TrEMBL record:
One of its GO terms (molecular function) is ATP binding. It comes from Bracon brevicornis. Residues 19-43 form the Protein kinase domain. Gene3D superfamilies: Phosphorylase Kinase, domain 1 (3.30.200.20). This is Protein kinase domain-containing protein.
Length: 43
């Protein structure tokens, strides 16, 4: 499950309640690739 929230005008996209998407790092025929950060430990 993915969720999008807006905090102080900045949109955050959270996947599965565990990962925050930071930025798009690439794309190809299979889809888009994003850099994600684990919300619980920051890695």
């Amino acid at each position: 499950m993915a969720m999008m929230t807006s905090v102080l005008g900045k949109t955050e996209f959270v996947v599965g309640g565990k990962y925050r998407l930071m930025r798009k790092i690439g794309s190809g025929s299979f889809g888009d690739i994003y850099l994600g950060i684990n919300i619980s430990n920051g890695e």
